[in-house]
Fold this sequence. Notes:
Elements: E1 14-19, H1 30-46, E2 49-56, E3 60-67, H2 72-92, E4 104-108, H3 114-122, H4 124-127, H5 142-147, H6 158-161, H7 167-176, H8 184-196, E5 199-200, H9 203-213, H10 228-233
Helix pairs in contact: 1-2
Amino acid sequence: xxxxxxxxxxxxxxxxxxxxxxxxxxxxxxxxxxxxxxxxxxxxxxxxxxxxxxxxxxxxxxxxxxxxxxxxxxxxxxxxxxxxxxxxxxxxxxxxxxxxxxxxxxxxxxxxxxxxxxxxxxxxxxxxxxxxxxxxxxxxxxxxxxxxxxxxxxxxxxxxxxxxxxxxxxxxxxxxxxxxxxxxxxxxxxxxxxxxxxxxxxxxxxxxxxxxxxxxxxxxxxxxxxxxxxxxxxxxxxxx
Length: 240
């Protein structure tokens, strides 16, 4: 069965996840995290992708980015993935694949969803019970976005920038968003859209993406549609 084409549009934010093969570890030492982030910055620039948020978990990676061209994210992840696998295989003496096939992703509506994706990504270590507060986890963008830690990797999304008139105000407003966990329904919505390669947003946004791409970007209805011939034979329609 052919793979569904990836849902991506130039200038539209994309949330993506890439997992280790069979959910096995893909980071083994602190140097691995640093190497990945260095190459992420290098290839994001080369592929014209603006990175807004990230988290590197033990066996998977989350990114929120905006590609300048529709194929930018795929180019970024291909080059980054290959470079990092070569590095891991060389330093650990292993061989073969490291990643679980293609990365999964969803186009993300800006209003109402981009900041939720920021929080979803940076709260991953908290949901995984690795830390009690996102600022305790060193391999995410939280310390830069919320606490002003210097980062040459990140490009703030315009909705993040709109949180305040200066850096201190933006960081304070951003920290306020983390006073509470994300609503479970929002978490499920982001997961479903990302795993299904769908569009994350309102029905209007999904319709706009469908029109732009010329194909469905939402989950299909379960079950077989009723055949017209079956309806007629049941006597529900009168020929007169």
